[in-house]
Amino acid sequence: MAVTFQSVQTAGITSNSVVVTKPTSTAEGDLLVASFWYKDSGRMVTPPSGWILEESGGSNQEGAVYTKTAGVSEPANYTWSVDGASVAMDGSITRITGQASTSPVYVTTSDTADVTGSTGSLTYTYTGMALTPANSTSNLLLFFNFLKSSSTVGSPSASGYAIENDDPTWTERFEDTIGAADNIVAMATAVRSEQTSTGVFSATSTLHSNGAVGFAVAVLVVEDVNITVSPAVIEATATINAPAVAGGANVTPAVIEAIATIQAPTVTTEDSKITNMDKNSVSSITNLDKS
Questions:
Q1: Residues 47/66, Cβ–Cβ less than 8 Å
Q2: How many CB atoms lie within 10 A of CB 97?
Q3: Calpha distance 267→269 (Å, rounded)
Q4: For residues 217 and 178, what is the distance between their CA atoms, to the nearest angstrom?
Q5: Are 47 and 19 in contact (CB under 8 A)?
Q6: pTM of the model
Q7: Are 260 and 236 in contact (CB under 8 A)?
Q8: Cα–Cα dist 157/204, whole Å
Q9: What b-and-e string marks burial along 160-180, b requiring 16 or more CB atoms within 10 Å of the CB?
Q10: Dist CA 246 CA 79 (whole Å)
Q11: How far apart are CA 190 and CA 274, in angstroms?
């Protein structure tokens, strides 16, 4: 089952809490990936219950990515909050299906990047960001891009998402302007099947004269790879005609039937080193250069 982007909900506000609506059609077992950003640093962040912090960072702005597997019953919305006074903040929740049931998410974060230059477009690279899947099937990449303008002249904008190796086609899913129109949070996704390292992530920003400060988080969601032996039980049937008996006697039944059942064999996948002991396997993933 291919790992697939389904939908996303976002919310931006100047406050000390942001409420994000649950993505449409969320069902039990779906993977929820949330981003939370605020224009400050050193605040105490309180996420909603049940969410796992995957990565966080930033300078004079802080961003983080959280994940959660949807349960049988989920609330209508989720709230992230910070202590202290109101501040520009943004939250998003992305719904994903088809992810592996074990260790589906691998995350890498960038160092803060200063995006400087005159007004216009400039491509900037987030060094230290690379992800290597050990799965040659479909993998979903999410690239969260947090940009804070160096002044209130205007908001930078994000585009031109790319990775260094085997760059796939990217689709921007949202770009939110927050606060005094000098900050953005954006996210793009791409499907990539290569088993090689992504190399570094980069993006293009449309700058204003004073530049911007960037911070990014990349997420790799791996596909649920099921190997099934079907049928799980092999059945063999043999029939033998009853022997003839002299003297006109009847032998019942006229045909003797024997049925034998054999459990399907264990299947081992060499590439992922997973033994199929119960006729179903889920591939594992190794992130060799998570930084």
A1: yes
A2: 20
A3: 7
A4: 18
A5: no
A6: 0.74
A7: yes
A8: 8
A9: bbbbeeeebebebbbbbbbbe
A10: 88
A11: 27
* Tens of each residue's pLDDT in the chain, 291 residues: 688 999 999 998 889 999 999 999 999 999 999 999 888 878 899 999 999 999 888 777 788 899 999 999 999 999 999 999 998 889 999 999 988 888 888 888 776 666 665 556 667 777 668 888 766 567 888 888 887 766 555 667 778 888 899 999 999 999 887 765 567 888 999 998 888 888 888 887 776 655 667 778 888 888 876 555 556 666 767 677 666 666 666 666 666 666 766 666 655 443 333 223 333 333 222 332 333
Cβ neighbours of 50 (radius 10 Å): 14
- Tokens representing 286 are 């190794």
Q: Tell me which DSSP letter residue 224 carries.
A: -
Name the token pair of 2: 């291919």
Three-state secondary structure readout of 83-135: CCCCEEEEEEEEEEECECCCCCEEEEECCCEEECCCCEEEEEEECCCCCCCCC
Distance CA 103, CA 287 (A): 11
What are the boundaries of each domain within the chain? 4-222, 227-282
Q: Helix, strand or coil for residue 14?
A: strand
Could you tell me the two tokens for 138? 């479909």
